[in-house]
Amino acid sequence: MQVRVAKSAGFCFGVQRAVDTVYEQVEKGVRPIYTFGPIIHNEVVVRDLEEKGVKVLNSQKELEALQEGTVIIRSHGVGKEIYERIERKGLHCVDATCPFVKKIHRTVEKESRAGKQIIIIGNDQHPEVEGIKGWCSTPAVVIESAEQAEKLRILEPIPLCVVSQTTFNYKKFKDLVEIIDKMKYDRVVVNTICNATEERQTEARRIAGEVDAMIVIGGSHSSNTQKLFEICRNECRNTYYIQTVHDLNLEVLRSTGLIGITAGASTPKKIIEEVQTRCLN
Ligand code: F3S
Prior knowledge:
With about 280 residues, the chain is α/β, with parallel strands linked by helices. It has helices spanning about 15-25, 45-50, 60-65, 80-90, 100-115, 125-135, 145-150, 170-180, 195-210, 225-235, 250-255, 270-280, and strands at about 1-5, 35, 55, 70-75, 90-95, 115-120, 140-145, 160-165, 185-190, 215, 240, 260-265. The strands form three sheets. It has a four-stranded parallel beta sheet, with helices on both faces. A four-stranded parallel beta sheet has the order 3-2-4-5, sandwiched between helices. The model has no long low-confidence stretch (mean pLDDT about 95).
């Protein structure tokens, strides 16, 4: 049996960096450590960190109640107010915001100060968008659908600055910008979409097209893993969706020559390596 593992399988660069940051702090002996929100949507990782003494803060109220410690900001980033609150309370802040998200913060901060109306294309409920809004000096407008874009009315004659949530779909982003453009506002558009998700999908499609069987690893509720599974299944009928190495059915794979492996965005490297090792042994 031969195995081909997708390079883009699992965590993207920003999430890997954030998770590594927390483990580094643990290893340095820093205590107590808190993350503002779970560092990643993976129970195994969050539980492992909890066992090592890392607590998750679920609200600003919980942050406010702290007397001491280190607060780690996850890759999604947070608004300016959270940094100020951490500082005011005399807590130590370790910033693991993804640099691509940080760049959006800098852009909206600068452009809103320069008098532009910030338009964020993304999901208003998403923590990343919440954080971006928190860097605008005037209230931002968030748009997610064509319907919301059609309804956009900026009454003051000021230029617009359009940015996007990093994980927003590029085609949808373009469609929404087109709608805004028809309104003839003076505007700048900064495409802030990160292509980590797209790269993962493109590579999975390519590998699935070249192998005899494909394994997709990810959580049962992970929508990006589900999407990866569909993409691979379209290319390779022998595609299997597993959560951990324990779900692997080697009997089915035994007669297979070349196996491909990919994994959703919240799958730790360790799980991918375990699956790879099991296939090879
Ligand atoms: Fe990941 Fe950062 Fe992109 S968190 S999806 S690399 S914006």
